[in-house]
Design goal:
The protein has 192 residues and is an alpha+beta fold. Helices cover 35% and strands 30% of the residues. Strand 6 and strand 7 form a beta hairpin.
Length: 192
């Protein structure tokens, strides 16, 4: 059964400890003030991370081989450049950061999704949300966690809840997502 601490193998526990140890590299900041709540999430998606890493690796290999051999007609050299360009193009699909801003005085929220080439803004009234919780999605061999915002009534989508982040970031764990959900739930005004 998922979530049972006795069901994990020792290797899964060791991997989780290593994963949590390096979580500081990609920070998640929760800034709670009396009238505002700001959550800054710099965790990229797995695809964004791998394509950016691939671009840097293949571009460095291309530059090194070009400098080392001066062979402009080498098929392998130009293949490295083409793969680097493909990785760069694919990295435009993922987000660099996501910022969630809640303001009690203006009764508003702003969700910002920052891509390499554009920025998406989602704005609205904060009073439509009644709480937040963590939804666990079980795949074949892993679990993914999403922060869900409860909405009052049904909206245009026909749903009574909204997913805060649609794509799973790296360093996705129940603890990190529950920190976000708890901060939002504590900040939202309680409905009487």
């Amino acid at each position: 059964m998922y979530g049972d601490p006795d069901d994990y193998s020792p290797f899964e526990r060791i991997w989780q400890m290593i994963w949590d140890r390096f979580g500081f590299i990609i920070p998640l900041r929760i800034i709670c003030r009396p009238e505002t709540l700001t959550i800054i999430d710099y965790r990229p998606t797995g695809l964004m991370f791998l394509t950016t890493l691939g671009f840097l690796g293949f571009a460095a290999a291309f530059g090194f081989l070009l400098y080392k051999t001066w062979a402009f007609d080498s098929f392998g050299l130009w293949t490295l450049l083409i793969i680097a360009i493909i990785c760069l193009a694919l990295s435009f699909r993922g987000t660099i950061r996501e910022v969630y801003f809640f303001d009690k005085t203006a009764d508003s929220y702003v969700f910002v999704r920052q891509f390499i080439h554009r920025k998406e803004l989602i704005e609205g009234s904060m009073s439509q949300f009644t709480g937040a919780y963590v939804k666990t999605q079980t795949n074949d061999e892993s679990e993914s966690y999403f922060v869900m915002l409860n909405q009052e009534g049904m909206f245009l989508t026909g749903m009574s809840e909204q997913t805060l982040r649609e794509s799973v970031p790296i360093f996705n764990s129940f603890d990190r997502e529950s920190d976000i959900a708890n901060a939002i739930s504590a900040f939202l005004p309680s409905k009487r």
